[in-house]
Write a structure and sequence with these properties.
Blueprint (H helix, E strand, L loop, with lengths): L1 H19 L6 H10 L24 H12 L10 H13 L5 H9 L5 H11 L2 H14 L17 H12 L4 H14 L4 H6 L17 H21 L18 H10 L3 E7 L3 H42 L3 H8 L7 H14 L3 H7 L2 H18 L8 E7 L6 E4 L7 E5 L5 H6 L15 H9 L7 H14 L20 H13 L4 H9 L2 H4 L10 H11 L18 H7 L34 H5 L18 H9 L1 H13 L5 H10 L5 H12 L4 H9 L2 H4 L3
Antiparallel strand pairs: 1-2, 3-4
């Protein structure tokens, strides 16, 4: 009896506790999550004391943490870079552009003890700072200017999100506000068009938009998958997407967690929201009308040339139809039966003509006339008025559909229904009694998520971002897997440093530039490198443009197209009319803008950028790989872009000392005696200045950070 009574005393509370659990979590799952909630990244951030290490090497608290860890391993810091190398590293790292000879001379001439700190302040105050940081953020959120997949259509207004990011870094916007605007700017600041543009974050990933019959529910699930992945990877630094088909195999994330997070976005849809003023609308309407009046006669002329040949092709194809299709077409549309209507619709699709079929039947003389009209049309297309401003946004759509757990992630295999909420393990780790529930009202779900993510005591948000900052400047994060702070991710190499930075970041008011400056001015950053880092693809291209004198520093606006190789053109436009389907800007200077403003097409990337490891933007890229292969050398030596740039670079060199000028512009130093001798021998053997300039742009010293 006593044994039975004791058993009952233990069992009843357990049963009661199980009964109190929500229907989306089972007792065994709850036990598993509780048992694993003590993992390091789910624990509150505690600010450790700064190590009391004695050394003149320590310039700020970051150095103290680094030196302490080095001494634990019986190691010492590396030597500091010389001033010339330090200037070059800082310029390329902070602005993404190399120093000019004048900038280098001015820095070397400044003998004040804080000359380097003043340099960092100047660079961080410049607009190139936001362009450089913006590119890194766009990598992480997988931004591109097109949808991806088969059609890969351009997103007319998506570029405003890119500009929003650049402006945010330049203005040193608080990171918690930066986060909130992207998650729920439309809910938190409904009258702010900038906050509305920021919600484009939810739409930065690829979207499967194709023609034909669509499974709308499947399409919707794909959109939710992208939204979940964005929040999970970018802000939480967790692989929540691994729980879409089943409970996470390694981290304490339930499949229900995944769908509760998705439920937060169940009432969210992508929409292009007009943010233009009445004056902008009126101006656009007038410009559009005037432009269409110029275009109409050209289109009419082209149609007039094609009309008889299209009619002839239609008649020929109609004659080859089966009798039942011809008979259906013969019946007036208003008198057709439903069956005849289907037959007629099918017949119309069979008798249509593609552009190549039409062009093959037009005589050469008329084809030449048509080509002339097409060229005039393309000229007008280059000056087509820009549509009035719209935000490529994510907004609330009304009452959302119920969210269910999907067996193996299949939208046709619905299981239990769940309400919106955040991952259970994070709710438990923070002591949330509501188990991370979010409001069931459509309006406010994302706002609650944003506030939860941006709370000062969140265990992940600050850690994840300061780790990205450290990785950006040092080449490797304190956690070497920036998008995975889970159990399969790397453990922090210096946990105290990570938590000190996270604590300090929040205490400073989420001040990005303050912590960034601390990193950039530390002795740790100024050390010589064990293994040099190659510049990002965009920095390689931008540096070439800068040194060759072609760089257009214009900021912001719609993405620009640059020349592409014929082979690339043929890949994109195999089923399109082959005349000027990749129109270059009327103002050719636009083609030489910084790479962050160049059209980023998901399915086809510029060979130079792809060869130097530009992300494919189909998924978040927390850290770019660094590959070495033959295509890089072929691109740098043989591409049209490099040949043009080398000629432009050569044109900048004086006749008196082209070798000295070239080294000064490209490497901001004088050539060594042996380098000058080799160059002179090259010229004596008939080498051209353009070839010499091309060789200099291929130096490791040019494309690697000191």
């Amino acid at each position: 009896m006593r044994h039975y009574f004791l058993t009952l005393m233990v069992a009843v509370p357990a049963l009661l506790a199980a009964a109190e659990l929500p229907n989306w979590v089972q007792p065994r799952e709850m036990d598993n999550v509780k048992a694993r909630k003590n993992f390091w990244s789910f624990q509150p951030v505690r600010k450790p004391p700064v190590p009391a290490v004695e050394s003149k090497w320590v310039r700020n608290p970051l150095d103290a943490f680094v030196l302490e860890k080095l001494r634990e391993k019986k190691e010492e810091p590396r030597t500091e870079l010389d001033r010339r190398a330090m200037m070059r590293r800082a310029m390329l790292d902070i602005t993404g552009l190399p120093p000019t000879p004048d900038q280098m001379r001015a820095f070397l001439a400044d003998k004040s003890p804080d000359a380097y700190e003043k340099l960092v302040d100047r660079l961080m105050a410049g607009t190139a700072y936001g362009e450089r940081w913006g590119q890194r953020w766009l990598d992480v959120v997988r931004y591109a200017d097109t949808n991806g997949y088969e059609l890969d259509a351009e997103r007319t207004h998506a570029w405003r999100y890119r500009d929003y990011v650049i402006r945010s870094f330049n203005s040193n916007k608080r990171f918690d506000q930066f986060l909130k605007e992207q998650i729920a700017g439309d809910e938190l600041w409904p009258a702010d068009s900038d906050a509305l543009v920021a919600t484009g974050f939810h739409r930065t990933g690829p979207e499967h938009i194709v023609g034909g019959n669509q499974d709308l529910e499947m399409n919707r699930q794909e959109v939710l998958i992208e939204m979940n992945a964005g929040v999970g990877n970018v802000f939480l630094g967790l692989t929540v997407q691994c729980a879409r088909c089943h409970n996470h195999k390694f981290d304490p994330f339930l499949q229900a967690d995944y769908y509760r997070l998705a439920a937060i976005f169940a009432g969210t849809e992508g929409r292009e929201v007009a943010i233009a003023t009445p004056l902008e609308w009126a101006s656009y309407s007038l410009e559009r009308y005037e432009w269409e009046q110029k275009v109409k006669p050209i289109l009419d002329a082209i149609k007039a040339i094609e009309k008889p040949y299209r009619a002839k092709l239609k008649a020929e194809k109609r004659a080859q139809l089966e009798p039942k299709f011809r008979d259906a077409l013969a019946v007036p549309e208003a008198q057709r039966t439903p069956e005849q209507g289907e037959l007629a619709k099918n017949a119309e699709s069979q008798t249509g003509s593609t552009w190549d079929e039409v062009l093959a039947t037009i005589p050469a003389a008329e084809l030449a006339v048509r080509k002339g009209w097409r060229e005039k049309l393309h000229e007008l297309e280059l000056i087509e008025p820009e549509p009035p401003p719209h935000a490529y946004a994510a907004v609330n759509s009304g009452k959302p559909h119920a969210t269910h757990i999907l067996k193996v992630g299949d939208h046709k295999m619905k299981q239990g229904q769940v309400e919106p909420g955040v991952p259970l393990v994070l709710a438990l780790a923070r002591g949330q009694q509501d188990l991370g529930d979010v409001t069931r009202d459509v309006a406010g779900r994302r706002a609650q998520l944003a506030e939860w993510l941006a709370s000062a005591d969140h265990p992940l948000t600050a850690r994840v971002f300061v780790n990205r900052m450290w990785q950006f400047r040092m080449g490797e994060g304190v956690v070497k897997t920036p998008n995975d702070f889970g159990t399969l991710g790397e453990r922090p190499t210096n946990p105290k440093l990570l938590d000190w930075m996270a604590s300090e970041f929040v205490a400073s008011g989420w001040d990005i530039k303050k912590l960034d400056r601390m990193i950039l001015t530390s002795s740790t950053y100024r050390q010589s490198a064990v293994q040099r880092r190659r510049m990002d693809a965009e920095v390689v291209r931008d540096s070439i443009l800068a040194v060759s004198g072609q760089l257009n520093a214009k900021m912001y606006g719609p993405p620009v197209k640059t020349p592409i190789e014929q082979e690339i053109y043929d890949i994109i436009f195999t089923e399109q009319e082959p005349d000027n389907l990749w129109p270059l800007p009327k103002d050719r200077r636009e083609m030489y803008r910084r790479t962050v403003y160049v059209l980023n097409k998901r399915t086809v990337r510029l060979p130079m950028l792809a060869n130097f490891d530009q992300p494919d933007t189909m998924s978040s890229c927390p850290q770019r790989p660094t590959s070495t292969h033959a295509l890089q050398a072929l691109t740098m030596m043989n591409s049209d872009f490099m040949a043009e740039s080398a000629r432009a670079f050569a044109a900048r060199l004086g006749k008196k000392d082209p070798v000295g000028d070239a080294y000064s512009l490209a490497l901001t130093r004088e050539p060594r005696p042996e380098e000058r001798k080799l160059a002179e021998e090259f010229f004596k053997k008939g080498g051209t200045v353009a070839d010499f300039a091309l060789a200099l742009l291929n130096r490791n010293e040019f494309i690697y950070l000191p």
